[in-house]
Amino acid sequence: MEEKHLAVQAGEVGEDGIPMLTVVVDGCWAKRSYRTNYSSLSGAAAIVGFRTKKVLYMAVRNRYCMVCSRAAAVNKLPGKHCCCKNWHGSSSSMEANIIQEGFQNSVAMYGVKYAKVIGDGDSNVYKTILDSRPYDELQVEKLECQNHLFRNFCLKLKDIVRDSKAGPITLRKCLGKNILRLRKSVISATAQLTKNEVNFDCCSILQKHILNAPYHVFGDHQNCVDSVCSIQRKNDTNWIPDLLQSGLLYRIMNVVNNLADNSKSLLFSANNNCVEQFHSIVAKFIGGKRVNFCLRRSYLARCSGAVISHNSGSFMTRVHKSMYNTRPGNFVKSTERRRENYLIRRKRKMSRPRCRKNLCF
To answer: What are phi and psi of 61, to 5 degrees?
Structure first.
């Protein structure tokens, strides 16, 4: 197991000699919910290694079996079949159950422990892991995905802007124009702290920067550090007294406090892009979630195929060799070779220095 060897080389081994891995977790479903209708018949979740970006564990939960359902509709016993129904709870609880199962089987499957987990902010999953206590002497530590932290931060500020009861329209418009500046100020402070070795003091320093960000952006520079505050910005209009008088500043600081509490995750600078990439392959295999593959075992087969495609990059060759014990023909080889060369060129292009957006605020 490559992820295990890399952890041993990095010295991430527990007192009992078992390697401690950092993993990324997330779930996906066979049906789009649009944040309102969580009623998918099937769902899957994956545990992906942080270093290798490969799927270490994947499982599927099904709430429906076509054979059993049709037999029950006519009050008959179903015939002999391989029933795919393995879940009786809600669709939203599938993800937590699968990830809990993966943590409990980590030692038996690979001889490793998942010490740190990177998630998308779903507290239910982490609570399920803690309640199950997969490792008696070790408490799993959670790190939040940086992308989700900033996305939720901006969405909550936009909700304040749209709320007519939050404060005067002039101040809410001022907040709406400066949401991106607030985000950039946090990113800039994080980037400066991560240039050197990150330690416990960096977390407290970053928290102070984040809590001071609204004051800096809205014109109050009393507590600003010269290294992150330009002289030109110090001549801005001070909106803080008006925000404080209207009560809007308190609502802004509630959102900022939530981001400051996750300063450790921001310094770790991790995201769950690797597991999102796996989910995109699953969506490709199931027709963009527009076709119902939840009647029998089709959804499980397609998710398993997505694991092969994600881990190996040569889905057709692996499946053909496993089924027929021979390598596929030249057409399949040339197709996969072109795909591999395309990915190499794309990675080489992405590694070149690019002109990025200015992070000055």
So the answer is: -120, 130
